[in-house]
Fold this sequence. Notes:
Elements: H1 2-14, E1 18-21, E2 24-27, H2 31-47
Antiparallel strand pairs: 1-2
Amino acid sequence: MAENLEETIKESLKSPAKVSSDGVSVEQHSLSEQIAADKYLASKTATQKKGLGIKFSIVSPPGAV
């Protein structure tokens, strides 16, 4: 999904931001809005992974009971 969004952003940079023809207007989201959406989706994906990334364990020296 991230690759698809990255490609969408690249394609939108190649096209004009606003187009008007025969009384019909089309305007794309600004680049800052697209970057904010990408960051939001990346953070949402990162939080869906299981676990906190921290592992706790008890270490005891040899010979300890």
